[in-house]
Amino acid sequence: MKANLTATLTDNETGKTYQLPIMHGATGPRLVDVRKLYGESGMFTYDPGFTSTGSCQSKITYIDGEQGILLHRGYDIADLAEQSDFMEVAYLLMKGELPNKAQKAKFVNDITMHTMVHEQISTFYRGFRRDAHPMAVCCGVVGALSAFYHDSLDINDPHQRMVASYRLVAKMPTIAAMAYKYSIGQPFVYPRNDLSYAANFLRMMFSVPAAEYEINPVFERAMDRILMLHADHEQNASTSTVRLAGSSGANPFACIAAGIASLWGPSHGGANEAVLNMLVEIGDKKNISTFLSRVKDKNDHTRLMGFGHRVYKNFDPRAKVMRRTCHEVLTALGVHSDPLLELAMEMEEIALKDEYFISKKLYPNVDFYSGIIFRALGIPTSMFTVLFAVARTVGWISQWNEMIEDPDQKIGRPRQMYTGATARDFKPMHLRA
Ligand code: SDX
Description:
Blueprint: E1 6-11, E2 16-23, E3 31-32, H1 37-41, E4 61-64, E5 69-72, E6 75-76, H2 77-83, H3 86-95, H4 101-112, H5 121-125, H6 134-144, H7 158-184, H8 197-206, H9 217-229, H10 237-247, H11 252-263, H12 271-282, H13 288-296, H14 317-332, H15 339-352, H16 355-359, H17 367-376, H18 384-404
Antiparallel strand pairs: 1-2, 2-3, 4-5, 5-6
Helix pairs in contact: 2-9, 3-18, 6-7, 6-11, 7-8, 7-18, 8-9, 9-14, 9-18, 10-11, 10-18, 11-18, 12-17, 14-17
Bound molecules: s-citryldethia Coenzyme A.
């Protein structure tokens, strides 16, 4: 990191100037270090939504929004999606390097050995209504894990952090599938140690005791790729939520539950569910222009879900891989025309030529096509964001561990611009209007 370069801030109200160090990462935008600004100037910075704010240093994921580049520990997402698998990407994100053969075998075995949940947890589900949203169930159940695994709550013990991390990565598919089974009144399905992470999830979701369940290798590969594409994404809203919760010393299960809650929002991970609902609502290509007119109408708050991104002002590289996977899965299923995929592709083609989207640099993001694949795999719409959470748990836990190990980290405590009433005397009831 280059030292001694500064940015000068001149306060025209007081005539004072301040030298703020300029920081350089390995790549990406330079940063102005404002940590001492308030102490020296009495001024805060103001950045709601953190559009120009770096919250931490990280080595995990790099995004170039202008170029549409996504790297995990330096490896391009397209290369990983094509040549790697979710367990390798999990190892890479958690430990910093791709595993060799022996390391991968041990990691996969360690994760596999943690896929079951405490039997008492299955009764936890019975407290929910059958029609509870699976994200609500997962929020509750993951948070409750801290009540079961007391031997992996000490965040200052690296071994306990590792055990908690493995437990979370391993158990999320089981917890997610149990939420689905509970919602449809079918019995829970236990994980199997002879299956891959993706195959285990599919079997826990769709097998029933009354029949053998055959893993479709195309589905298994597609699911594994979808998990890779959703694994981590720098300091997005839910990852920042996990880091902020973790900065207070909260246990890892509580932090991941907080991440699930944040991911649920339709502006974030809930967008995949919203995209499918939007496509179903539009229904036919002839309705696209009317829908897009609503999107462009300032007075109408309709958004083209699955489009736009805070960082990507070009194609989300994950959307490209997702669209390709869409075609692969549908072809493998012998589905030569899927009306929702046709509709989505027509919508994308029209939007990408429309001045409104071009001027605002709105492109398809990871959520635009994912729902179509999920639907083709038989995943119900209400489970789309749960799947996102299963994958993102690897990223969340990697970022959480990095934060705990960061010597610079301290409790996150932003300030504000106060615009309310200034000090005033109390008004007793008889003087109030
Ligand atoms: C994810 O951060 C991450 O990395 C997230 C994620 C990850 O992997 O963790 O990539 C996953 O959350 C992807 C995004 C999924 N969300 C959606 O698809 C929902 C639809 N998209 C948006 O609501 C929006 O694009 C956001 C939330 C994704 C980004 O919002 P920003 O960066 O705050 O941008 P903005 O809302 O200020 O929009 C800028 C302008 C606005 O117009 P003006 O007020 O300037 O006139 O673009 C418009 C917006 O109205 N706009 C859209 C739009 N997205 C932005 N207009 C129509 N349709 C859209 N989808």
